[in-house]
Specification:
This protein is of the alpha/beta class and 447 residues long. It has helices at 2-24, 38-53, 70-81, 101-108, 134-154, 159-168, 174-179, 190-197, 221-228, 232-251, 257-273, 280-298, 302-319, 338-364, 438-441; strands spanning 27-33, 58-64, 87-91, 97-99, 111-114, 119-121, 171-173, 185-186, 201-202, 205-206, 214-216, 378-381, 388-393, 396-402, 412-419, 422-427. The protein has 3 domains: 2-219, 2-enoyl-CoA Hydratase, Chain A, domain 1 (Alpha-Beta Complex); 229-364; 370-441, Nucleic acid-binding proteins (OB fold (Dihydrolipoamide Acetyltransferase, E2P), Beta Barrel), CATH 2.40.50. 49% of the residues lie in helices and 16% in strands. It has a 6-stranded parallel sheet with strand order 8-5-3-2-1-11. α2 (38-53) runs parallel beside α3 (70-81), α3 (70-81) runs parallel beside α4 and α10 runs parallel beside α12. The longest helix has 27 residues, at 338-364. 40% of the residues are buried.
Length: 447
Amino acid sequence: MNKLKTLVILALLLSVPVTARGASRPVVLLQVEGVINPFSARYLERGLQLAQQRGAQAVIITLDTPGGLESAMREMVQQLLQAPVPTIVYVAPGGARATSAGMFLLLAADVAAMAPTTHVGAAHPVPLGDQISEISEEKAASDAAALVRSVASSRDRNAEWAEQAVRENLSVTAAEALELNVIDLLAQDLSDLLDQLDGQQVDGTTLETEGALLQEEPMNLNERFFHAITDPNIAYLLLSLGTLFVLAELADPGLSIPGVGAVVAFTIAFMALGSLSVNWAGVALLGVSVAFFVVGLLTDTELVVSIVGLVPFLLGSLLLFVPFTPPSPATPTVRVSPWLIVLMAVSILGFNVLVLRAILVAARQPPRSGAQRLIGQCGVALSDLAPDGQVRVDLEDWSAVAEQAPIQAGDPIRVTGISGVRLQVKPVEGPGDQPADTARRTPQHRQ
């Protein structure tokens, strides 16, 4: 009996380390969404390093992207191929996609998985003037095809289909991708994915993912901010806001809040443009439109010149992300929303014609505070001005100096300027210049 108890206790003790070892090795979860850019690459690198430091048994990257910058995609592919821990790229949730650069990332993972109702492929955009740049386009496609073929072959996946996806712009559903040996698993959700991964051999390591702790590692604040601004609509919005701030600053120069806002908006906008496929001719057209708006402000022709300036503004907005040269197949097709373009065009026109016009008119008016407000007003001399004396203007007594001496007490006068703390006055030339209530303000001692 004692021997039996000893054997039972020994079996329990031997089983505890095995269970604990599986449960103590977490799975790190990363989320890559939107356009692939240098901040996506930095996020992936940080996530892989954290997984290694935590002793994670694997890293799962949920993916939903239309593609992105080729340099960032190549950097992320290298990171996945050389990852210190097993990597699983999972295209999810339902409706997600892994197109252009996303397809390269999916094929570079140790395990490629997709959720139902997702798709994968190479969205190969057609550049303007494609007949002229046919040779260049073929060169870009061949370079990308060679990369995707080598990546797919290194993971024992369908390299022939991967090359066709680049050259012929092919896309397939998740079920078709599994049948074509493009991916390894079709999983309903993360729980189903972990169950299917359990027991699989990856680079000589047996995964124990059933019931494993899933540690989500989101982008930090810095990564989220810079990743968000690479949205083409946000980058375009920042450019438009920078234009509005510039116009407001020119209407009232002095590096005020609009001036600072313009610097900040343009700085962030050009940081975003550095991570997107930009047609710099479109940027130049936007600059021409700003020049038109400025000319309208400075020449009092806001309405006419602003309407003319809308033409290069609209053209530049439409061409901003339309390349003239063949883009890489890893680059997504990005466009600014037409509704956003119309909204910003109307906003700039209205701001330029209505708001800035009112600011300029107010700025050109003579100051209305202190003694300056009295310039042009009529009053009466309280004493003889030869040339100094006292006058009353707007029911206030002021020291004054006569421009045309002498002026006798009781004579109507008009303020022509300010000299230090004294008013400069001259006699009212005729009865028509004298206000109707001058007689009531005239001292009675003059007889």
